[in-house]
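INTERNAL AUDIT FORM
Audit reference: QA-55
Scope: verify that the stored structure record matches its stored sequence.
Auditor: D.O.
Record contents follow.
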Amino acid sequence: MAKTCLAALLLLAASSAFSQTEPLETDIDRIQASASLLPLGWGDSVQSVIVIERDEILASPASSLAELLAATPGVDVQRRGPLQADVGIRGTAYEQTLILLDGVPLRDPQTSHHNLNLPVPLDQVERIEVVLGPGAVMVAGQATGGLINIITRRPDAGEWSASVGAGQFGYRQGGAYIGGAGHSLAADWRRADGHVSDEPTDYDLRQINYAGRQALPAGEVYWGVGAEQRDFGAWQFYTANFPDQREETETRLAQVGASLDWAGWRWQPRLYWRRHEDWFQTMVGETAFINEHRTRIGGINLGVHRDHANGTTGFGGNLVRERINSNALGVRNRDEVGLWLAHRRELRDDLALEASLSTVDYSAHGQFWLPSAGLHWQVSEQWGLFAAAGRSARQPSYTELHLQTSGNRGRDDLAPERSSLYEVGGRWRGQGRTLSLALFERRTDRLIDWAREPGAVTWLARQFDAHRGRGLDLDWRWRPDFAWVDELGLGYGFLQTRLDDMGEEIKYALDAPRHVLKSRLRLVPSETWHLSLDARWAQRRGQTNAMWINARLSRQLGLAEIFVEGSNLLDREQAEAGFAPLPGRWLLTGVRFSGQLAHSR
């Protein structure tokens, strides 16, 4: 089935590509891709980059960031219930994926299960840039699987919005956003009673974020603070033997930065701070076992670049201090220092070379040198080809190092992972259409994962050499110029993973789907009616191949948009991560008001 679908998809994309000759002109050409600090457009990047724009976010039937990312080609989202989710890219697991918020890395040294604990409501997001590879040089090549940069709306846009909603499983929601005159404030609250009767699957989510920006003669200064609280039933999240679990988390984030022109260079300093608290309870009979973790991260980074006769050159560095205070993992801290240098040169009008070198020094593990290089060839006005290779590294989390429970045992002698990615691909743009195709291979040594002997109960942190992943990504989008159909998108991913598991059961490295099909359809029957459909199908080892369909129907009435959303419309029974069952068919409705402020800067 998958081969037939792939052949049909390729034929459809190719026929659409060669039937048009005019290039597509969209805002995507003015995007600075997160794959490089150097200011590039989508068509000039030497890596695979997917951009989710503001209009796509509004039209999507996704009601959460996890659902939005799950519909993105190359991204694998494994959810534990409706609130918690792990994000992987091209076959890597959640620990190999780096999440950034406006360029600030939001990794958690306790565990990357908290990657999506973000103090930003979805309504405040302007766009999302997904790099399907080792990622930006300015994070010292540490996004071994890839990175996701979430970019918030500018506070001088002069906009406001408010929404309320309700639905099945006792769902209710309320949110608001206002932005203008260099300031913005967004808040959102969501609650549900749970999708499994008489079991703790309820949740309560609260988010608030403030951002400010001030223009200066030489550039601008920006700042922001945000907070998030989660309280949810974690029924069967990590074990089926003791399924009665509950978790509460709190996230606080603050940052200040600038973008200034001085002495012919663009200077981009940034200072950030993140606090995360995690309370996790497991009931064993009548006894409650509680783990409490408090992490603090402080960081400062600087990026500098300029254009000159020989191309574009950038350099910079970062310093990060991580601390944890935990009754299960101990009281610990560690430092990280990174430096990087990057250069892009136009060898010809149609040929560009980009190279970078970064080094990262872990206080607990030593220094690593991480080179990367890429080539972009603009074959024609419509076609562009690229090739890239890069090294990356990741130090183990505190959970992988120090957790000691009856179900999981870490190892304090784990070394950082080392990964190499090789990629070749092409992009095509025509009138209303884009096509991206890439072949890749990832080689990882010292891969960190959890393993156990057949029949054993306890997972042990282990390291594996010679982990290999080969695959293909395809993303095709079409915005036809005829009535009703606003956009059609198709995506396909293939992955072949090889790992010598030595007869053991592996927890994460082999769970990525071998075949993935994703599609989306946006219909506009009239000026006021909009219908969005997202569908995805994955062939995952040890799981039933299930089709997941989400939909959103809305009508615009002046300042008000009335909508109905549905997820898992086929009512499939599925558990994507751990043992936690996902909700069945889930319908909700609401109204969203939005407009422009009378006075804004």
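Auditor finding: record pair retrieved intact. The longest strand covers residues 287-308.
Action required: none
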